[in-house]
Structures are given as C-alpha cells and as structure tokens.
Amino acid sequence: MKKITYLLSALMVLATVSVKAQASQECNIKYNLFKGNVTTKKYEEAKPDLNLLMTNCPKLSVNIYKYGAKVADKTKDGALYKKVYETRLANFPNKGTAKAHSDYATFLAKNNLASDDEIFAILQKAYEISPKDMGVKNIFKYFKGIVGKYKDANPQKVFDTYDDVMESVGEKLDDYNKKIAPLLIKDSLKTIGAKEKKRLKAYTINSKALGLVEGGLDAEISAIATCERLIPIYTRDYEANKGNGVWLRRAVSRMYNKGCQTDPLFEKLAKSYADVTQSADAFNFVAGVLQDNGDKAGAAAMRKKAFDLETDPLKKARLKLREAQGTRNKSRARALAYEALKYNPNMGKAYLYIASLYAKSANSCGSDEFEKRMVYVAALNKAQKAQRVDPGSGAGRYIKSYRGNIPSKKLIFQKGIAPGSSHRVGCWIGESVRVPSK
Predict the structure, then answer these.
(1) Which of 33, 76, 162, 346 has the fewest C-beta atoms lying within 10 Å of its C-beta?
(2) Helix orientation angle between 296-309 and 280-292, rounded to the nearest 10 degrees
(3) What is the CATH class of 332-438?
(4) Cα angle for residues 126, 127, 133 (degrees, 5° grid)
C-alpha cells in the first residue's frame, strides 16, 4: 500500500513539473512572438500576447513591460499603459522603477490623461527613487513643481531639491562627456564606425538636452536664491548643520555662485566645511577666503593643498577653472582655464570662460569698430569649440550672442579686407582668427 502511495505521489510531482515546464515553454514562445511584433512595429498585433504574458507569465522578464509600454504608447492606449505600469511595479518593484514612473508620467502628460497634480505625484515617486533615471524634461517639470509649491513656504526644500537634481544632471553630463571624448577623436580621424557614429549622435543630443535643463534650473532658482534670502536661512540653520558636510558644501557653493562671499557667514561656512570634510573642494573655498583677506601666500598654499589632494581629473579641472574664475588678471585667468583643459580636454565650460574673457575685452582690444568686432570672432571660435567637445555645456546661447556681434559683410567690405583672410586680434588676446565669410 505504501509503495502505491509513493508511486502516486511521484506521478503527481512529475505531472506538476511537466505542466510547469509546458507552461514555461508556452510563455517563452509567446514572449518571442510578442517581441517580434514589437520590433517590427506591429503594435496592435502585439497586444493579445502582451495581455497573455502579463496574466500567465508576469515574472518572466521585465522586458515584457518595457516593450509593453512602447506598445501602449504607440497605440495611445491609456488603459493598457496603466495595466503595464501597475503589473510591472507589482512584479518587478526594484528594476528600473524610477524610469518606469517617469515614462508613465510622460505618457499621461502627452495624452492629457491626468492632472498636473497627479503627474507631479508620479514624478515625485521617480525622484525619490533615483533622480538621474528620470527623463530630461521630467527633471525640469518636477523641479518647477517644487518651486511652485515651496518657494515661499519652504525655500530650503527648493534649494535641497535643486542641489539633488543638479548633482544628478552633473553625473549624467560627466558620463556623456567621457563617452563622447573618444568618439570625437575617432570622428576627427575618420576611423569611426557606423554604430559608433550613431552612439555619438545620441550622446550629443542627450547631452545638449541636459545642458538646456541645467540652464533652465538655474533660471528657475535665480529669482529666489538671492543673498538676501540665503544669508538669513543659512544663519538660522548653521548650528544644526555645522557638522553636516553635505549641507555645508551646498551652502558654501550656493553662496559662492550667487556672489555672497563678502558676508562674514561665507568664511564661517567655508572653514566649517573644511574642518568637517578635509576635502579638496573645501580647501579650495578656504583658499578664496584667504585671498579675499589679503593672504596671497596662504591662499596659494591652500590651493596647492586642495589640488594635490584631489585625484579625479575631472575634479582637478573644476578646481583649476574655479581658480581662473577668481583671478582678476585676464591673461592669468586664461592660462588657468587652459590648465583645466589639460585635465579635461572636453570641459566646455573652460572654453566658454575664455570666450567670456575675450568678449569682455572687445571695447579695449581694437582701434576701430572692425577690430573690436573681430574680438567677438575669437570669442565665437571658443564657444563653438565648447559646443563641439561638450554638447551639454550650454554653449548655444553664447554662440548666438557672439555671432550677433561679429563684423557684418558691409563693414568687412568697407574695411577692404578679404573674407576668409587671417586677422590678428591684438592686446592681451594675441590670437589669429579668420575674417567671417558668411
């Protein structure tokens, strides 16, 4: 009797295993059919298999939901997208969730299927998981929502969100910068392959989009992040945060960027930041304080300490550029910006800084209108270089401004100079540029 019982149990187990194996095989067949329809853009034909997979094989692969979102988006099927979104979260709660939230918010906004508050709530979920995995436009949209809700009630929340978002944008831009640099070299040598060319184009587009977001975020916060508003807030919160390195770094950076260094609070924050973190970034801020206090030797020693402590080439480049930005002598400032470019040849902001130095010298680097306007040609060249090597640097607005000030065809004709010929820009700039031909 026991033998019969064991035999029946074994047969039932085998039957169960066989059924599961059969079901798994069917799921894989349906998944491959579904994937094939999506990749060949047969979105309506893909729907039945998508629904079957979500019902019978919801944990087979997260790609079911990635492809499913595309099917719902292309067919503008709001009910299907909601089902894909919710089923994905239920079965893959820790795989690419921030992007899933962000993409769903985009779909709802694009098709007017939800209110601004509902979309903001979904974006907030994405932000709380991983801001850097949000879509470029959604990063900006979320921050605008934060500004609208908290600019008066809780400006510190706006500042904190700005810092989080900017750090995420900065990480993305650095990542694209690293990917773009070797591809640009291959492109210039004509050794770039078709796939690499496609990647370079995609990285360039995404980097430019992030650069625009960075500029948009700055514009949004500039109205509320004034010295008059920052100083009382940081004075109030200093005691509670004087041991918090992240808070100190953000406070010092914001006051520096807004030009609040003359207030005694800046020195207090910078020194606390250095004491707490012992970081290269902090020592560099202290160097600026020493410089402003007239201790040039102490400032130079502190800058060297900061630079020697830093090991990341990208961060070394930023330290050099910040030193350049704090230098009054234009020739010396340019030299420091070029030093920054030795550590990061694709640092567009260094080229833009040199361009700005040139543009500010236009009225003093020429004896007539033509010569003065040729200074803008030198500035334009640097801005265009910035855009080529670093699409996310935000060079577009500089290029537009400088291009609007170069010599006109009429002025070139009156001067009797051949378009395309070489011209030496004088004074401290000392560069040869081409006379515009268009």
Answers:
(1) 76
(2) 170
(3) mainly alpha
(4) 70
Within 10 angstroms of residue 432's Cβ, the number of other Cβ atoms is 9
Tokens (6 digits) for 244: 């918090």
What count of residues does the chain have? Answer: 438
Concatenated DSSP letters for 128-179? Answer: HH-GGGS-HHHHHHHHHHHHHHHTTT-HHHHHHHHHHHHHHHHHHHHHHHHH
Intervals of CATH 1.25.40.10 along the chain = 2-150
CB 351 within 8 A of CB 382: yes
Contacts of 180 (CB under 8 A, 6+ apart): 200, 203, 204, 207, 346, 389, 390, 391
Nearest to 374 by CA among 432, 438, 428, 334: 432
Pairing assessment for the beta strands 422-425 and 431-434 based on DSSP bridges = antiparallel
Please measure the distance between the N-terminal and C-terminal CA atoms of the chain and give it in whole angstroms.
100
Question: How many angstroms separate the CA atoms of 49 and 437, rounded?
Answer: 60
pLDDT per residue of the chain (438 residues) written in tens, 0 to 9: 555 555 545 445 444 444 454 557 889 999 999 999 999 999 999 999 999 999 999 999 999 999 999 999 999 999 999 999 999 999 999 999 999 999 999 999 999 999 999 999 999 999 999 888 888 889 889 999 999 899 888 888 999 898 888 888 888 888 998 999 999 999 989 999 999 999 999 999 989 888 888 888 888 888 888 999 999 999 999 999 999 999 999 999 999 988 999 999 999 999 999 999 999 999 999 999 999 999 999 999 999 999 999 999 999 999 999 999 989 899 999 999 999 999 999 999 999 999 999 999 999 998 899 999 999 999 999 999 999 999 999 999 999 999 999 999 999 999 899 999 999 998 999 999 999 987
Task: Pick the closest to residue 372 from 384, 353, 359 (CA basis).
Answer: 359
pTM of the model: 0.76
Residue type, 367: S
